[in-house]
């Protein structure tokens, strides 16, 4: 459904994503893992068009109803290498943000309803079209039910807990009617009591979307993924079923050293501890150990602001690189 060939992104002398060949199937929940600074966020930003590749191609093949859809319901592959974020979103590639990305003073319902309206094809005539309004409203209510936020529909988004905000972000992404969902650490900053809800939500959206998940919690990754790909210093060093990747010597050396899987069901909850590889193994190749901590703090700090800084920051830095 979504594939990259020789995808490469350099920032000055640094190769953040290095010649990556990758393909995500329509029915897959694939996790993208790797140490801090491995290139995961850069890879996401390339897929959504927030960053332009230095080399390589990105191709996308939408689902039923997409442009050029064939008898089997899938569209033809299109080159989306140079597509801008609004173009990839309108084609069906959506992401949830590592940094909270909601309108805090609007209600939970309004956040989803506005996203559904923005995706609608007659947004400019919206206020004159009452039946269309009803449709968006119904869609938003159904999405809130799906992400488990119905009881908070009328509350301002700012009143949600951090975990509920992550659920809302997934709801906002679903309102764009995506084929592919890119989930960037949906578990970051979420309290241990809410981790189970987030896992259930990831598994649920994966029943009818292709999902690419960036997640540091290995218990979650090993429990929910159909497939795991590993980036290290921008290179794809492993790609396969969770058990095979966990046992891969190169991956153990680069990232997972010392990690042993705990079954979510045996433990009762994947959040029994942080489920992350030992700290030493999460250090980035360039020694910049602040990245993950910074992300988690940013997510918390951003609670009261509607922002898309996660991507924009990358663009800004790129511009100066
Ligand atoms: N806009 C940018 N300008 C310059 N360098 C960048 C930029 N974005 C990322 N990098 C560098 O590219 C490398 C990959 O970063 P990236 O954020 O993609 O890694 P990551 O795997 O997502 O890390 P983390 O797990 O910490 O989020 C890092 O060395 C980072 O410092």
TrEMBL record:
Chain intervals for the UniProt region annotation (Disordered): 259-321
Alphabetized SUPFAM superfamilies for the sequence: P-loop containing nucleoside triphosphate hydrolases
Compositional bias segments (type: Acidic residues): 293-315
Domain ABC transporter: from-to ranges: 2-258
Alphabetized InterPro entries for the sequence: AAA+_ATPase, ABC_AA/LPS_Transport, ABC_transporter-like_ATP-bd, BCA_ABC_TP_C, P-loop_NTPase
Pfam families, sorted: ABC_tran, BCA_ABC_TP_C
Entry's Gene Ontology cellular component terms: plasma membrane
SMART domains: AAA
PROSITE patterns per the UniProt record, alphabetical: ABC_TRANSPORTER_2 (PS50893)
Gene Ontology MF term list: ATP binding; ATP hydrolysis activity
Alphabetical keyword list: ATP-binding, Nucleotide-binding, Transport
Signal peptide span: none
Protein name: Amino acid/amide ABC transporter ATP-binding protein 1, HAAT family (TC 3.A.1.4.-)
Organism of this sequence: Halogeometricum rufum
Source species taxonomy: Archaea, Methanobacteriati, Methanobacteriota, Stenosarchaea group, Halobacteria
